[in-house]
Amino acid sequence: MANSKRELFLKRRLRVRNKLRKVNKGKLRLSVHRSSKNISAQLIDDVAGRTVAAASSLEKALGVLGKNNVEAATKVGAAIAERAKKAGVEEAYFDRGGFLFHGRVKALAEAARDGGLKI
């Protein structure tokens, strides 16, 4: 019985998240969501159940609205790193969800690292 693309994605997302949860040492989670047009990132405190910081390519302040490319992901990564510093967060673990670590997801992670966030 063949699984649909969506079902395979959801299984992969849960598998990644459960593995990360096992090695998590009280760090926050940098969760990434990528759609066909936009990308967003959130720093989530799973213990408290709240979002500490967030950034998205939909924000007009970042100036990447409507661009679905690596440049937009890089700006979102830099913004989330800056907002994490303001919130007093230095370390997080990277939750790519069910997305492969290449292209825009990789660009976001590298920009967050360059911005000073340890992931």
TrEMBL record:
Highest taxon listed in the record's lineage: Bacteria
GO cellular component: cytosolic large ribosomal subunit
BP terms from Gene Ontology: translation
Keyword Hydrolase listed: no
Quaternary context: Part of the 50S ribosomal subunit; part of the 5S rRNA/L5/L18/L25 subcomplex. Contacts the 5S and 23S rRNAs.
Free-text function comment from the UniProt entry: This is one of the proteins that bind and probably mediate the attachment of the 5S RNA into the large ribosomal subunit, where it forms part of the central protuberance.
Protein name: Large ribosomal subunit protein uL18
Species in which this protein is naturally found: Aquicoccus porphyridii
